[in-house]
Amino acid sequence: MINVAKKGMPSLAGLFFWMNIKLENTKKLEVAKPLKLDCGKIIKDFPLAYETYGKLNDNKDNAILVFHALTGDQFVTGTNPITNKEGWWITAVGPGKAIDTNKYFVICANVIGGCMGSLGPRNINPDTKKPYGLDFPVITIKDMVRAQETLLEHLGIKKLLCATGGSMGGMQLLQFCATFPDKTFSAIPIACSSSHSAQNIALNELARQAIMADPVWDNGKYVLKDLQPKNGLAVARMVGHISYLSEKGMQEKFGRKLQEKADYEFSFNADFQVESYLRHQGYAFVERFDANSVLYITRAMDYFDLSKQFNGGLVEAFKNQKTKFLIISFSSDWLYTTKDNKDIVIALNASGADVSYSEIITDKGHDSFLLNEPQFLKTLKGFIDSMHEKFKNEKRI
Amino acid sequence: MKNSKMKKEFKVIADLLPNNIRVLDVGCGDGSLMNLLKKEKNVEVRGLELSQENVQECIHKGLPVIQGNAETELHQFPNKSFDYVVLSQTLQAFYEPEKVLRNLLRIGKSVVISIPNFGYWKVRTKLLFFGKMPVTKTLPNTWYNTPNLHMCTIKDLFNYCDEKKINIKKVVGVNEDKTSLIKKSNLEIKNLFSKVGIFLIS
After folding, report:
1. Which domains does chain A have, with CATH numbers?
2. CA A298, CA A220: separation in Å to the nearest integer?
3. Which structural domains are found in chain B, ordered by start?
4. Least CB–CB distance from A356: residue in B59, B76, B77
5. Residue B175: predicted pLDDT
6. pLDDT at A320
């Protein structure tokens, strides 16, 4: 298929060794308490990798939990020690930013099923003493959330000031609020949905099929051979990247511009800038992510259906919510549309919950929540700061 | 100036409401009325507002607000989910004010509506003597750029409620700082001298 051997790329065996060394320096909680997964299997004594920013104050009223998206990790801001690049939400989180780490204590954990230090398909299966691969149990969004809840106990936080997350992070947050109605004072689900649509599932299936079609994948057994199905994983990532941009945003960014050439090459090389962009994104991704993790995490997203858990009623899921919600959607997001987000608002309204909603007008598509979108960041900051005042008052009483 | 006048209207609306209730403010603007109601009446407020800028302003103030269009998005609120629904000076700007009104009465146990009065004497004289569409302090736009599609008078809305068997609990006329109760007996004269009419209906 696409044959792009990147120059200077470390061998994958070397890469994973190097990543493991680096991951040793990250914070890790050893979760002893057994966790019964939705699939029926039980995990215990498993690692949960996390990172924190800022300081927890004496009143413990300034803790904010961030849930990361499909390919995110616990390194929200600053420099990611694995990639040496900026944290994925550096636009919103940091000193003086919308989520100000001079003021707030920000926590983020790597989801289980992931590959940044939390229990995932690359970990050693205690039964076989070999990496799990496809023997890893199928996990759900609820499993991810329940695993992360143990971290709050560990950090001694009874109630968060706020919890937030975009995309799959938003889904985790909705699940978190439904499962633990009294664990956060406020919540900001961003660009998400209460269940995956047929189109969402179809796009994830495309990503999975791309990985599975790569002969290196070998039913997930590549982990035993210290290999990685690079081509399949890169294509999976390209699918994602198309869905994160809007049609208009893509046209404005790339149009029909050619990649460092005056005319067509009459070949299948990356003539167009948009092709070059996708290939770059795809092959950069394989250096930091595990193919089996993509399978597991996308599966968890597809299985997510909050109303199904509550006998078909999303209103029921949010019954007796004391949490104050702010839902944010982006006008050009076609992956998790304004309508998807509004359905959450309607359910929260019907359940009598305290809910605000804002649609940010932008051409940048689903990716907007990761970008420097002034209106979005202003809204985020305004809500969190006003919630902090309210939470402090509530704690005083 | 506009602000102080607004505040008089808001003050009248606040006086109409009991304490400790749930209020939906449709077209809540920057949240001034919601803030006033929270402070003076200790009510639980929720706003619906179209403009992103205003929504942001409300969120900054810690006021719960939903960005949306009252014309098309009132259906999301369940029946009788609020004790009071407030609509301040926007009824005339909807494409289908009757539909909006029906929705307000569905959502709220009671509804407070304020309207700029097209029956105010200055409005009448402008049309009568100059033959031009009236431009006043309460109606500052000209015919080609006004958002007001369905102007009505206090008498019109009064008669409409009567006709449709909508229960009129109280009507207050506002002229600058003066307020007065409007009843069937003084409707003609108040319709002439009130700039704004505030209706409490259910």
Report:
1. 12-396 (3.40.50.1820)
2. 15
3. 2-118+151-201 (3.40.50.150)
4. B59
5. 93
6. 86
